[in-house]
Model the fold of this input.
Amino acid sequence: MYIYEGICDWCKKLAMLKKHDYIDGKSHFSCHECNTLATLDVRQFNLAETKSQNEKYFKNN
Ligand SMILES: [Zn+2]
Done:
């Protein structure tokens, strides 16, 4: 849902934005045009973060 008005974190244009949540608690906002790219970016980040958390877990246990 594009309920926020502001600057898109991907293309830096003023638009209606959708919130994307990162696994580490951060969030970024994307416009409709950047949504596909943003969704992929966030998914990649979250996968990488989950992987590194698992690696830390196994190293410490
Ligand atoms: Zn954009």
